[in-house]
């Protein structure tokens, strides 16, 4: 039996989350397309693939090469510390997990998406208008995040996260699904720890992991059923696998591009697949993986055998993503067309440019930019200037122009509550670097800015080459996200844009700078003694951690939407087995249309004008079909005019609890009130 070193064991363990998720999505997504995404079929088909992936592929993960000799004495404490951090993160997030199932924002939309496919195993969602009132004019079947197309309903988002969260639903229903989200967040932290251990060394990875686990956006997004944790695992895990695939030095005695496949090629295939499958979780991952295309071009020029399998995996995974978007989420893609079409055009141009550049440079190989006296330094200077530009941007101009009037109206409300100048059209995009500073502290931003400049210069000089792909991905994603986050700018909502890659990038680069600075202090003829450098670095670590922890305290005092699950069960209990529901007001329709349809299993429609003859006609049509009409509204007074004497509405959904706040000019501190009511009444048959 081979005994693994602590570092090698850490490398293997941290590769497990991305391998498991990639294997699961690889098999279950076609099952959903075929309408066969059921527990039994998924267990029989995807189960063995997941087991094989986590049982065999980690064996091919090479022992890490510690950067700078930091882990020369390979010890167990970093591995133990990282496991403790991840487990503690999971326990805290489970304790604080939300119950966002009432559709107000994306978390509940994902919950309803998950509930439907976990129960039915297929898309689209039927409107079941034949069980309500047929094609009666005046009824609608759509709601926010659920588009009415013909006689079916298509959910808004991509299916990656719901396919994963369905496992929790199958195990323990809605509570199991809601607890799966914190576990995904913890696996995201573990994956980040693995990437940090490879790039920084295991000891410095402990600090990086702790900073990510403490920061508010990572905690907040892991408490609800968002897609970011799944995307984080796939994209950070892909960087991790790519590092492992390229860790072994190529044999320079012969070209390796067409060499027969070995374990490094399989790891490269897995890395490319994970990059591409990021699109199944989030369509904006298309922007994040563009640098991977350029990196594959560099691998081809270097005659590295991993180039072709990584390209094959990327194409396969991206193919899944495009099918997920343009087949299962076509209305959502149309909604995003204003920003998606330019991104598709940029992607096409980038792919063509990389192909042309690779062909032109094929004989010459990778350009020797390290021979230039000025270019590496110039690139470093550009990085510093860019960060300074992001810092100065709020002083230069204020960005205006939302995608829709509803967003502007909401921003105006938040501005009034927060007591800032009323300017509903303001997008706050110019403040994105300040957002990072809120959540990680100004020291982290400063250290990361210095770190990226130093690293870019070193990579241009062909040092620290293991950073080439991470730097390509991180610098591109950070720059494009900070330039245009494209999200409603209230917090903690807007912090979602930072979770997948931006915050991990800043943390990795800041901790790398500390590690580099420590090595510089301890080396050379004027090396500083340990008694001096150790306290200095401890203070630097506290400078990273303390501001991060203080900001995170804003989400540590509440759970979101608690009581919604129990209230929804009561709501469903009020529905007769042969019920067809008619919602009489727009607010209730927006929040509860898919809740009643999906969780209660009741055909549901919204009566746009309940005071018109349409309502009486709809009730009559339902009764003629041998079903029972159930009226739904947010107040009893909206129901009683349409009920015969002696029929009183019931009040099954009556929740007074806490929800996320919304802030614009400061990080969130403490919750707002979640106050929601649903009244129902069964109309007796005449």
Automatic annotation (TrEMBL):
Q: Where are the transmembrane segments?
A: 13-33, 40-61, 76-96, 152-171, 204-220, 258-279, 285-301, 308-328, 340-362, 374-396, 433-456, 468-487, 499-518, 530-550
**Source taxon at top rank:** Bacteria
Signal peptide (UniProt feature, chain positions): none
* UniProt keyword terms in alphabetical order: Membrane, Transmembrane, Transmembrane helix
Organism, scientific name = Salinactinospora qingdaonensis
Indicate yes or no for the key word ATP-binding: no
Name of the protein described by the UniProt record: 4-amino-4-deoxy-L-arabinose transferase
């Amino acid at each position: 039996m081979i005994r693994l070193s602590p570092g090698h064991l850490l490398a293997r363990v941290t590769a497990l989350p991305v391998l498991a998720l990639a294997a699961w999505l690889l098999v279950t997504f076609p099952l959903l397309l075929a309408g066969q995404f059921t527990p039994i079929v998924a267990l029989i088909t995807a189960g063995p693939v997941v087991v094989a992936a986590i049982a065999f592929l980690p064996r091919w993960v090479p022992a890490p090469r510690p950067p700078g000799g930091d882990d020369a004495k390979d010890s167990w404490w970093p591995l133990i510390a990282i496991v403790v951090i991840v487990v503690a993160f999971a326990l805290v997030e489970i304790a604080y997990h939300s119950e966002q199932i009432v559709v107000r924002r994306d978390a509940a939309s994902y919950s309803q998406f998950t509930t439907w496919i976990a129960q039915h195993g297929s898309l689209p969602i039927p409107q079941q208008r034949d069980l309500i009132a047929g094609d009666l004019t005046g009824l609608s079947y759509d709601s926010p995040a659920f588009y009415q197309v013909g006689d079916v309903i298509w959910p808004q988002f991509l299916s990656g996260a719901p396919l994963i969260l369905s496992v929790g639903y199958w195990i323990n229903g809605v509570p199991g699904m809601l607890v799966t989200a914190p576990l995904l967040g913890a696996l995201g932290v573990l994956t980040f720890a693995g990437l940090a251990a490879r790039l920084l060394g295991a000891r410095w990875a402990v600090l990086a992991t702790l900073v990510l686990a403490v920061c508010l956006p990572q905690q907040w997004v892991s408490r609800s059923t968002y897609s970011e944790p799944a995307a984080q695992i796939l994209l950070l895990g892909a960087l991790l696998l790519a590092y492992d695939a390229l860790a072994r030095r190529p044999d320079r005695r012969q070209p390796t591009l067409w060499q027969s496949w070995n374990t490094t090629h399989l790891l490269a295939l897995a890395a490319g697949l994970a990059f591409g499958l990021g699109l199944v979780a989030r369509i904006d991952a298309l922007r994040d993986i563009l640098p991977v295309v350029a990196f594959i071009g560099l691998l081809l020029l270097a005659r590295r055998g991993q180039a072709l399998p990584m390209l094959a995996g990327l194409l396969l995974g991206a193919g899944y993503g495009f099918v997920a978007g343009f087949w299962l989420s076509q209305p959502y893609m149309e909604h995003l067309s204003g920003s998606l079409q330019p991104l598709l055009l940029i992607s096409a141009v980038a792919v063509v440019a990389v192909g042309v550049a690779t062909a032109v440079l094929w004989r010459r190989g990778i350009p020797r930019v390290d021979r230039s006296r000025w270019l590496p330094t110039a690139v470093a200077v550009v990085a510093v200037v860019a960060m300074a530009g992001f810092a100065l941007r709020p002083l230069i101009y204020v960005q205006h122009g939302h995608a829709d009037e509803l967003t502007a109206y909401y921003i105006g409300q938040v501005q009034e509550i927060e007591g800032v100048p009323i300017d509903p059209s303001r997008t706050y995009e110019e403040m994105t670097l300040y957002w990072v500073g809120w959540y990680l502290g100004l020291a982290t931003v400063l250290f990361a800015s210095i770190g990226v400049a130093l690293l870019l210069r070193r990579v241009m000089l062909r040092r620290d080459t293991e950073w080439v792909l991470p730097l390509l991905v991180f610098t591109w994603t950070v720059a494009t996200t900070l330039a245009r986050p494209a999200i409603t700018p209230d917090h903690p909502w807007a912090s979602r844009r930072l979770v997948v890659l931006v915050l991990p990038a800043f943390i990795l680069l800041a901790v790398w700078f500390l590690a580099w600075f420590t090595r510089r202090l301890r080396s050379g003829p004027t090396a500083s003694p340990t008694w001096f450098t150790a306290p200095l670095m401890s203070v630097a670590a506290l400078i990273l951690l303390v501001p991060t922890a203080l900001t995170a305290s804003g989400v540590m005092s509440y759970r979101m939407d608690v009581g919604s699950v129990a209230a929804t069960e009561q709501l469903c209990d009020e529905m007769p087995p042969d019920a067809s529901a008619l919602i009489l007001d727009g607010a209730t329709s927006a929040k509860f249309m898919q809740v009643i349809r999906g969780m209660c299993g009741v055909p549901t429609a919204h009566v746009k004008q309940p005071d018109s003859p349409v309502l009486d006609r709809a009730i009559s049509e339902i009764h003629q079909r041998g079903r029972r009409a159930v009226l739904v509204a947010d107040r009893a007074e909206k129901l009683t005019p349409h009920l015969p004497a002696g029929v009183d509405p019931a009040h099954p959904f009556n929740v007074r609890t806490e929800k996320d706040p919304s802030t614009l000019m400061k990080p969130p501190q403490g919750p707002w009130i979640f106050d929601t009511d649903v009244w129902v009444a069964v109309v007796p048959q005449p």
